[in-house]
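Example 3.2
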Amino acid sequence: MKTNKEKATQFSKHLFWDVNISDIDFEKNSKFVISKVLIYGLFSDWKVLVKLYGLKNIVKTAITIKELDKKTVSFLCAITDIKKTNFKCYSTKQSVNQHWNF
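Structure, written as tokens:
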């Protein structure tokens, strides 16, 4: 069983710049870790995430995240059989569009 520090060192350093990485409990804070990787992670981080949580748990958690971008949702829909309309981020759009929303 890997320790939190060993798990944390597998991810890119930029993912957890705003928190103390040694304080993250990868079991209790799985939604936080999954959202960070899905929003800001690289493909290498994705591979580590799948090994750590499994695809089924990642998708189950991703459905509840409100801040996912269109590319991430499309990627998750492509590798699973879940529709875009099942994601919370799909149904709860911001009322005011962002300036850089291309």
